[in-house]
Design a protein that fits this description.
The chain has 591 residues and is an alpha+beta fold. The chain contains eleven helices and 25 strands. Helices cover 18% and strands 26% of the residues.
């Protein structure tokens, strides 16, 4: 990017420093963009020491509902997580959005369930490696618009294994990234390299399969460093270690070395305890830095327990009292641990509110005071964390599975239907699951197998009620159909930017859209062009107020001195939300 830029609003100019993040857009732009439109972004406001809450979201990989002591585990020791559960709020009915990693994580980040989200399959399903797009808005982008320092350390799992592309974490709201970009690479506990933002950092000690450096140790070190470096500014850290995903590898067997178990089971137990140690290190660091009283820590998992690479989830009762495992839409495949902890900002106790992880985006935005899109499927549980006895509840929860891999126990729980497309929907205490005859969502309804369970009386899903309650089963199937959209249209949110044909003179059009639930004031669009370019605004670039759903659109006539010079134009949109300024940006690359 050029080293000197100007931001222009009408005739006014002022030098400003930019950073990058995303915004949502819809598909009905007035003029088609003729140049590559890069991810719209939220540039941070000034970062100064404040009393804002800090956030740490810790996402385990394939950690089952029953694999923590606080959820009934007997064989594996998780003392630090159990302490957080005792001091904080333990959710007994939290749900991953899908029974496998990629779609679950996409929904967690974007607040859209698996009938609406961009990524709906694991890489081994239809379509291969899924990628986020410039239409996806993550919880990191919501907080970054408010000036938060945002970091993701560990597993990303989307898009190509390359920098500078829309699915990279740096393009999706995370200013700092260290870890694995792709899903497949994240299965290597002794990788030969990891990514640091756009740079591939080699790990020479692991070259040639020597396995000297354990990636979770590097991830722990970077996470603690992030907390220390950004201790004087508001931050969001998403910590996503690959623990305890297969293959079961951990050089720190510790107390499990002498157990009469197979090697994979010993190492799996060690992985769970290593995760526990990492969580303890993070909370210790927050306390040592004097940040614990204004921090909120959330710990959860992306799906149920795995049975891969020789690990036996039944030995550990990894799904607790529930039926099913990873890849099942029964409760054992999608119900996960969720612990919220903060010495001052989260009440202690338990809650049985059915809580999908799509709730994270609106909850984090609510706690931080940031605007969030209203077209997400999640609901804020901030009132519940603070002690409300009547938090908002979902009318229904939808789940989708289309994954072409099966494992023995998962397939047995599915009665041999483990490779079929399946859907589930919970409404109140009733939950319906249906299996397609194959892998097509378009199969006629009379070819699907439908089951119905009353989770209040039968949490283990042992008694199928579909035959005795057909009307209720049909009603939930109807809701399943309504929950799926082949393409989910998004409401405009943040900034979009369109450039003309890139000749010597062309038009640039930018829109700042208030897709949140509250009005914005003092809205403004500012175009950033290289020094020496002529920029003339054709519309007023300031709006005193933008109501929810309203937009500010500005056109500029731009003249550049050299037609062949390739460059990037950036537009920044700012507004006041409540008492805070939020900032979003979008860029367009010219040929």
């Amino acid at each position: 990017m050029p080293s000197r830029r100007r931001f222009l609003t009408g005739a006014a100019t002022a030098p400003v420093a930019l950073a990058a993040v995303t915004a949502c857009e819809d598909g009905d732009a007035a003029q088609p963009a003729r140049h590559t439109v890069e991810p719209a972004a939220a540039a941070p406001a000034a970062r100064t020491p404040s009393n804002r809450l800090n956030f740490v979201v810790i996402l385990a990989d394939d950690l089952g509902y029953g694999e923590l002591g606080s959820y009934g585990q007997q064989l594996m020791h998780t003392p630090r997580l159990d302490t957080l559960a005792a001091e904080g709020l333990r959710f007994t009915q939290a749900y991953a959005a899908a029974p496998v990693c990629a779609p679950s994580r996409c929904s967690l980040l974007t607040g859209l369930h698996s009938g609406h989200a961009t990524v709906r399959n694991n890489p081994w399903g239809p379509g291969g490696q899924g990628a986020l797009t410039d239409r996806d808005f993550t919880f990191a982008e919501a907080l970054r618009a408010l000036g938060y320092r945002t970091g993701l350390i560990g597993k990303w799992g989307f898009g190509p294994n390359a920098p500078d592309q829309p699915s990279h974490p740096n393009s999706r709201g995370f200013e700092e990234f260290y870890g694995y970009l792709t899903h497949h690479h994240a299965h290597d506990y002794f990788p030969e390299y990891l990514w640091h933002n756009g740079t591939r950092e080699e790990i020479p000690a692991n070259k040639g399969g020597t396995q000297q450096v354990y990636a979770p140790d590097l991830i722990s070190e970077r996470a603690l460093g992030f907390l220390h470096t950004h201790r004087d500014e508001p931050f969001l850290l998403c910590l996503a270690p690959t623990l305890p995903h297969a293959p079961s590898k951990d050089p720190h067997l510790g107390e499990y070395a002498d157990r009469p178990w197979t090697g994979p089971n010993k190492r799996h137990a060690a992985q769970v305890t290593t995760l526990d140690t990492l969580v303890g290190a993070v909370t210790d660091q927050l306390t040592a830095l004097g940040l614990a009283d204004r921090a909120v820590v959330l710990v959860t998992s992306d799906n149920g327990p795995h049975e891969e690479a020789g690990t036996d989830p039944e030995l550990f009762d990894g799904n607790g009292p529930l039926r099913g495992f990873k890849r099942n839409l029964y409760e054992g495949g999608i119900r996960v641990p969720l612990i919220a902890w903060s010495p001052r900002h989260v009440r202690s106790g338990t809650t049985d509110r059915p809580t999908p992880l799509t709730d994270l985006l609106p909850t984090l935005a609510d706690l931080a005071g940031a605007p969030a899109p209203t077209d997400v499927d999640g609901l804020s549980v901030a009132p519940l964390l603070r002690g409300s006895a009547h938090p908002a509840r979902h009318d229904s929860l939808y789940f989708y599975r289309n994954h072409n891999g099966v494992t023995a126990r998962q397939n047995a729980a599915d009665h041999g239907r483990g490779d079929r497309l399946a859907e589930a929907l919970r409404r109140g205490d009733l939950k319906a699951i249906r299996f397609a005859p194959g892998q097509s969502l378009r199969a006629p309804d009379d070819q699907w197998d439908v089951e119905l369970y009353d989770l209040a009386r039968d949490p283990g899903e042992e008694h199928d009620l579909a035959a005795v309650r057909p009307a209720q089963a049909d009603a939930l199937v109807k809701l399943m159909r309504e929950s799926w959209a082949p393409v989910y249209p998004r409401k405009p949110f943040g900034v979009t930017l369109e450039a003309g044909d890139g000749g010597a003179e062309f038009t640039v059009t930018a829109t700042l859209a208030n897709g949140s639930a509250r009005p914005w004031s003092a809205a403004r669009l500012i175009l950033d062009a290289p020094s020496g370019w002529a920029v003339h605004a054709r519309d007023a670039a300031i709006a005193a107020r933008l109501e929810p759903g309203e937009r500010l659109t500005v056109r500029w006539r731009v003249t550049r001195p050299q037609v062949s010079t390739a460059t990037t134009l950036t537009c920044r949109g700012t507004a006041h939300h409540a008492d805070d300024e939020v900032t979003y940006t979008a860029t367009a690359t010219l040929g």
